[in-house]
Design goal:
The complex is a heterodimer of chains A (242) and B (291).
Chain A (H helix, E strand, L loop, with lengths): L4 E4 L1 H13 L13 H22 L39 E5 L5 E3 L1 H5 L3 E9 L5 E10 H7 L8 E6 L4 E5 H4 L5 E6 L2 E2 L9 E3 L12 E7 L7 H5 L8
Parallel strand pairs in A: 2-11
Antiparallel strand pairs in A: 2-3, 4-5, 5-8, 6-7, 6-11, 8-9, 8-10
Chain B lengths: L1 H12 L11 H19 L5 H9 L1 H4 L2 H9 L6 E5 L3 H27 L25 H29 L15 H9 L13 H25 L5 H7 L2 H39 L1 E3 L4
Antiparallel strand pairs in B: 1-2
Classes of the chains: A alpha+beta (242), B mainly alpha (291).
């Protein structure tokens, strides 16, 4: 410790001080975030790193906490987040889900075909990017069962969906195959209402709210992502796994 | 450190005025102004302990760094004590963390603006409307970009700091230990109740150690609560300890205010203790310390 306790004159003191001060110059690199030209790119990189970390933190076999019926948020207090309109006016009789991409059986699928798959009901937490959360009861078919039905290529990396209200979203395959990821047609054991995305929506307990697209019309299995998602294009995180 | 010792001994041998060419006109102006007031210091050329005592007596003048530096420049025989108080990694982490914390708090408050409540969404009762002027990111998405970028800098410097302190043994300087407990009350009495100043024996007094140890703990908690808010499912076991996602969000917010409370006190103390003390966090070296 004696080396750290020295006698020196002013000039020597200034010399060592200056040299030690210069060592701190790496801190100035953070100033890059203040340069308007670089800011957007740097933040995009930072968010991308967070998404990369998110994907690695995601455990396919780890289930979201499920709750008892007494923990449920009353249906009337389950928020409706409309992107465009609360009801894009889907005509149920004509509705089909158009499946395309890396699948063996592309084409139009009816709600009855989705409902013919084993039905799962789960009480899970719905977390909004804004910070609020509610617990709802959801029912539907596992997306993984549906992907099997349409003969999806297991090596494909992404699922993209389009919606009747022009919303669009995409998912990583690991999340799509998660047992709690549902093609949801039921809430609180009742058929999905129009405000909540009838006739078919995504319900993904392991993702934040905006990933759970409503009013599905198209589902594509993709090796390459051509469109990311409505909110992601505004600057939100793509993976945003919970 | 041995490197810098040699450096200093060599420095003694060098002719004076060595740095003159490097200092600009600005310094010369200072010098003229300074000459009159600062000559007192260099009149007697005492050595060793006496100088230390002198330095302590003239503490207020030391605050004006420029003046003193220039005045003594012509008198290299004046010897004072200097202590290397803050190792490089500690200083690096301190300033990286200062920037990261500023961004984390600013963007965090913008994120909070999206839902300024800890209650239900329906009906929503806002807790406080934080002014946009004291927030970073402009909107929720922008703030999340800042928050999810700087968290890695915040976490990285935090881990580097903890790792360094642990493996270098430097943690003895800052960690509040049971032996520090008796010194707390005299310090509190001095700071808040005009009590006598207890003798200074090391870089940090017991109350400082208590504050720094606490804020390091708060820093760890800010990361842990933040990770639960970000990934309540992957960190469900941690979330369970905090009472679930909903409570983790409240803890995260509370920890932020606790850290801000520390920062406020820290800044007040830095201002009160003056320039010499502040410089030591930039250069590592503290001139004529009180201990």
């Amino acid at each position: 410790m004696k080396n750290n306790d020295l006698k020196m004159n002013e000039k020597q003191f200034r010399r060592v001080s200056r040299r030690e001060l210069l060592k701190l110059t790496p801190v100035l690199a953070l100033g890059a975030f203040a340069v308007p030209k670089w800011q957007e790119g740097l933040l995009k990189k930072g968010l991308g790193f967070s998404d990369w970390a998110s994907a690695r933190l995601f455990r396919p076999g780890h289930m979201a906490t499920t709750f008892s019926n007494s923990d449920l948020t009353p249906f009337a207090k389950f928020p409706i987040n409309g992107y465009d309109v609360d009801d894009p006016g889907v005509i149920f009789e004509n509705w089909t889900l158009t499946v395309s991409g890396a699948v063996q059986k592309p084409g139009e699928y009816t709600l009855a075909q989705v409902q013919a798959l084993p039905r799962f009901r789960q009480n899970t937490r719905h977390v909004c990017v804004e910070g609020w959360d509610v617990i709802g009861r959801f029912g539907g078919a596992r997306l993984s069962d549906f992907l099997q039905l349409v003969g999806a290529d297991p090596t494909a990396k992404f699922i993209t969906v389009n919606c009747a209200d022009d919303y669009y979203e995409s998912l990583d395959m690991a999340t799509a195959l998660h047992p709690q990821t549902l093609l949801c047609y039921e809430m609180y054991e009742q058929p999905l209402t129009r405000e909540h995305g009838a006739p078919l929506r995504l319900q993904i307990p392991t993702k934040v709210g905006y990933k759970q697209a409503k009013y599905l019309t198209d589902l594509k299995v993709a090796h390459v992502l051509d469109r990311v998602g409505y909110w992601e294009d505004q600057g939100y995180s793509w993976f945003y796994g919970l | 450190m041995s490197g810098s010792v040699i450096e200093i001994i060599q420095g003694k041998a060098k002719p004076k005025g060595d740095d003159r060419d490097k200092s600009g006109d600005k310094d010369d102006k200072h010098k003229e102004k300074a000459q009159a007031g600062a000559t007192e210091d260099k009149v007697e050329p005492p050595a060793g302990e006496q100088t230390v005592a002198e330095g302590r007596a003239s503490q207020p003048e030391v605050c004006d760094g420029d003046v003193k530096e220039e005045a003594i420049d012509d008198e290299p025989v004046v010897i004072g004590r200097a202590v290397y108080e803050h190792p490089f990694i500690v200083r690096l982490c301190h300033w990286m963390n200062a920037v990261a914390l500023f961004v984390m708090v600013g963007s965090g408050l913008q994120i909070f603006r999206a839902f300024p409540s800890f209650g239900a969404k329906i009906p929503q009762k806002d807790l406080l409307h934080w002014p946009k002027a004291f927030a970073i990111g402009g909107w929720l998405g922008g703030a999340l970009q800042w928050h999810l970028t700087f968290v890695w800098i915040y976490l990285g410097t935090g881990l580097l700091y903890l790792g360094y302190q642990l493996f270098s043994g430097n943690y003895c300087q800052v960690l509040f230990m049971p032996r520090d407990i008796p010194g707390v009350w005299p310090m509190v009495r001095h700071y808040f109740f005009f009590g006598p100043k207890p003798p200074v024996r090391e870089a940090y007094n017991p109350l400082q150690k208590h504050a720094y140890t606490t804020v390091i703990g708060l820093g760890v908690l800010s990361v842990l609560t933040g990770f639960v808010v970000w990934k309540p499912i992957q960190f469900s076991w941690l979330g369970w300890m905090m009472g679930g996602f909903h409570y983790a969000r409240i803890w995260h917010f509370a920890v932020m205010w606790a850290i801000l409370f520390f920062v406020l006190g820290h800044l007040v103390m830095v201002i009160l203790h003056g320039w010499n003390n502040f410089l030591s966090m930039l250069t590592g070296w503290k001139k004529d310390p009180e201990y």
